[in-house]
Amino acid sequence: LLGQILDHWFESEPLKATLATDAVIGAMASPHTPGSGYVLLHHVMGELEGRRGAWGYVAGGMGALSQAIAQAATARGAHIFAEKAVCHVLLGRAGEAQGVVLQDGTEVRSKLVLSNASPKITFLELIPQEQLPKDFVQRIRQLDTRSPVTKINVAVDRLPSFLAAPNAHDGQPLPHHQCSIHLNCEGTQLLHQAFTEAAQGHPSSRPMIELCIPSALDPGLAPPGCHVVSLFTQYTPSMLAGGRSWDEQARNAYADTVFDCIEDYAPGFKASVIGRDILTPPDLERIFGLPGGNIFHGGMSLDQLYFARPAPSYSGYRSPIPGLYLCGSGAHPGGGVMGAAGRNAAQVAIKDFKRL
């Protein structure tokens, strides 16, 4: 349990609750949920430029990371077809992967296929079900892909000025503007209460908010004097109580709740907002192909980790389809911007390719 880990090492409730956010981030779980301690450890593993557990901003925004990977690949002869949706994996007579078919009917032949899509999309949408073992299909169908996350991107005409640390007179970013700012995290009980509301189908009345201002470190992301604010918030259920969907009214009502909370910490924030983009769990699923809106392609719970990710006997990146490999967040070791699943999958695929 996360609570036991934090209680062992820390005394301050605000500090424990702030650290607890990394144990429930992206998870429809409470700090009191068994297994939540692992998710915290998952988020502080590794290092960045020699600093253990450190995180960093990507210059130019997160898309710049994808561009860097793409440029490295094309420099070595790869061909990248953006905006070309895959319809299904092409199978040979023996059921082996032989390439992919695009939605426009184009066939792309290949000896190996690596899927960065989620296990649910890869095996339930891109492969005919009769080609897969029944127990495997059942396992993939049963994957817990619930997500509590609503992401709100905000454009503001000035830096937020927090009551706890008011802005300088020149309006320049202060050290805390360049960090992750956690709001509504004064106690783990607040996080548990926010989870409980969502578990009953209601968006949290006092949501957990992780706020960062990447333009404080990377001014090119916004016009002079203006900033972009990224809000990672939870808990919001995929389906609202009573079977209601996330219509425009529900989305704006939740965003208003989030903004009211920020206003309590940083008066004047709401007046500084120029525009906002609200992405609820169904939006994250529709736009980015994240099942249930889950940023990890599937819960990071103990029954869906290690040898069981995405399914028992298939944690080694190979799949029931010879020549088809899973290399995204739904594979071991799970989500996070670290590339471990992709690197491991590539090594397995190269090993197999040499035998073809």
Detailed description of the structure:
Its main location: mitochondrion. Belongs to the carotenoid/retinoid oxidoreductase family. InterPro entries: Amino_oxidase, FAD/NAD-bd_sf. There is one protein chain. This protein has 356 residues and is α+β, with helices and mostly antiparallel strands. It has two domains: 2-57 and 146-288, no CATH class; 93-144 and 294-354, no CATH class. 31% of the residues lie in helices and 15% in strands. It has eleven helices and twelve strands. Strands 8-9-10-7-11 form a five-stranded antiparallel sheet. Helix 1 packs antiparallel against helix 2 and helix 2 (13-24) packs parallel to helix 7 (188-199). The protein is globular. The mean pLDDT is 94.
In short:
This protein is α+β, with helices and mostly antiparallel strands and 356 residues long. Helices cover 31% and strands 15% of the residues.
Number of domains: 2
Got a strand count?
A: 12
Structural class: alpha+beta
Residue-averaged pLDDT? 94
Uncertain segments = none
Rounded to the nearest angstrom, the radius of gyration is 22 Å
Q: Note the run of SSEs as H and E.
A: HHHEEHEEEEHHEEHEEHHEHEH
Q: What is the terminal-to-terminal distance? A: 46 Å
Shape: globular
Percent of residues in β-strands: 15-25%
For the largest sheet, list the strands in their spatial order. 8-9-10-7-11
How much helix is in the residues?
Answer: 25-40%
Subunit structure: Interacts with COX5B; this interaction may contribute to localize PYROXD2 to the inner face of the inner mitochondrial membrane.
Domain Amine oxidase: 34-177
Keywords: FAD, Flavoprotein
GO molecular function, one term: oxidoreductase activity
